[in-house]
Amino acid sequence: MKGRFNRDKDFFAGLIFIFFGLLAIWIARDYPLGTARRMGPAYFPSIIGGALAVLGFIIFLRSLWSGSEPVHWPGLRPLIMITGAVVGFALLLKPLGLVAATFVLILTSCLGGWQFRWHEAALLYVVLVLIALISFVYGLGLQIAVWPRL
Amino acid sequence: MDMFHNLLLGFGVASTLQNLIYCFFGTLLGTLIGVLPGIGPTATIAMLLPITFTLPPVSALIMLAGIYYGAQYGGSTTSILVNLPGEATSVVTCLDGYAMARQGRAGPALGIAALGSFFAGCVATLLIAFFAPPLAEVAFKFGPAEYFSLIVLGLIAAIVMARGSLLKAMAMVLLGLLLGIVGTDVTSGIKRFTFSLADLSDGIGFVTVAMGMFGFAEIINNLELKEKRAVFTSHVHGLMPTRADFLASWKPVLRGTALGSFLGILPGGGAILSSFASYTMEKRLAKDPSRFGQGAIEGVAGPESANNAGAQTSFIPMLTLGIPPNSVMALMVGAMIIQGIIPGPQVMTERPELFWGLIASMWLGNLMLVVLNLPLIGLWVRLLTVPYRLLYPAILMFCCIGVYSMNNSSFDVILTACFGLLGYVLSKLDCEPAPLLLGFILGPMLEEHLRRAMLYSRGDPSVFFTRPLSLALLLAAVGMLFLAVIPTVSRTRNEAFRE
To answer: Is B238 left (phi over 0), alpha (psi -120 to 50) or beta?
Structure first.
């Protein structure tokens, strides 16, 4: 039992739910609670947060008691690359414009896949950036900077 | 006759050139993403929500609806030819559809799937036209207590219908409710859970949650699996089912349509549940159940009709009560709110062109789908050979630009990435995202109706039990939860999801 249970799915799920439940109650302390008749802004979140924490605790306890399936993490590369690609796009879009931000997005996300080929990624980028420009910027007329702001 | 008049109005709206084009575009896109495994209607509709902002409301809803029922048609193609469900709703079609394809009968399987779906779609369209108005009448009598109980029933149903542990699904609903609270409190004007960020004072965008949890998390999950897709390309010829096929299928189609229409209306129901239920029913009723899995046409005809009927009748609770029964309908509610329409019974009386136009478009869309699917089958088969490694960067790009363009906000894009991360981690822990999304959508409504009901009753919580309609809804919720806990039922529930 020892050393094994701490990798259980329910172990982590329970902890996550407890965390969010308690966080909600903790933050809601700053808001007026009100009464059952006139509920303040803190009333509903405190109930829901409390219920979530209790449920999380039950899930957590059950995992200690009877165990659950171990978590399977097949490698963090897709996770890091996809998240990184999106965050990079978000940070670069305003200062550098769509053409450059999309470059970072496509390249980084391609690196998150199984097979990476330079020529394929480059071709994909050219095609996609053209589609984006034609459909979003010229077609729908969205207000997005295309080139870097000098 | 009133309904005749209304349907005429609807067809008038739906058959304008612009709406026909959007209907066609929606069904085409639905078929496309239905055929492609790895991207579902939920992610696609979330992706297109920002674009619908620029369209008139009717066209936007017609297009989004087309994606949902179009995906039901497209999903069967992949199931039959590749033995991979293009959509979760056509998982059971793999069993007998692929077996038929291996016997060289892919054509009739595809044909009966499309024709059965078309029949089911027509019936479901009529059912919506018949039942939505009286249901909306009932909804007008709802007070805050009834709405509260109805939402509770919807959430409980989402929990019961979710895969895996009930406790975890319940926790996901609660987490969704909490996320829905973020933003400015309508009653007091206090900014709640915004962490002093101005970007959060209007609440968390609906699109960011849906796209992060369904779009991004799905991509990351797909990238972990090795790509293998062997298309069954032995020539598809003779799409028309034979006389014997028709004789064997007309009853399953009728039963599937009836079952799907019924299950679609239930909260938490929809296309997935309908197809599973229909397959089980056909297998039970068959004279020789052992033929199932060996290429029995009933096993294709029933579930394919059922999933399309279920997909369409699940619009009924959304359109009449404003309560979405599944995550796709939750997105439709989101689309209406973006357009400034508050979903609920008043939509039918205040915006009849919207309501009836949407219904009429469903019938037209189904007709287009038969045309799209049968003669163009070769095109869809070829599409299956596009590798995922070229698809996902494109999906990612459309998602990012879409989220950004909602408010011209980079913050929203980063928030979506955070939800992608959260969704990925939770899915690794066997926590389904669908209950969270429903909780998120329904959270603000639940709180508002709770507050109002308690205000009217002067703080007396018994109001939920003394009003008969509210009591009935709560009892239904308790009954549903109780049924799910009973060992025999929970065992069948597990089995249904395992297949």
So the answer is: left
The vertex-B69 CA angle with B65 and B75, nearest 5°, equals 140
Instruction: Report the number of distinct structural domains present in chain B.
Output: 1
Residue B412: give the domain boundaries.
Answer: 2-498
User: What whole-number distance in Å separates Cα of residue B245 and Cα of residue B351?
Assistant: 44
**β-strand partners of A8:** A70
Within 10 A of A33 (CB to CB), how many other CB atoms are there?
Answer: 12
Whole-model pTM: value is 0.82
> What DSSP designation does B325 have?
S
The beta strand positions in B277-386, using DSSP E, are: none
In the A/B pair of chains, how many CB contacts fall below 8 A? 180
Q: How far apart are CA B77 and CA B110, in angstroms?
A: 7
Which pLDDT does position B495 carry in this prediction?
A: 58
User: ipTM of this model?
Assistant: 0.91
Q: Any CB–CB contact under 8 A between B408 and chain A?
A: yes
DSSP letters along B454-487, please?
HHHTTT-TTHHHHSHHHHHHHHHHHHHHHHHHSH
Lowest mean pLDDT among A79-93, B229-243, B353-367: B229-243
A143 vs B contacts (CB less than 8 Å) = 408
- Contact between residue B23 and residue B62 where contact means Cβ atoms under 8 Å apart: yes
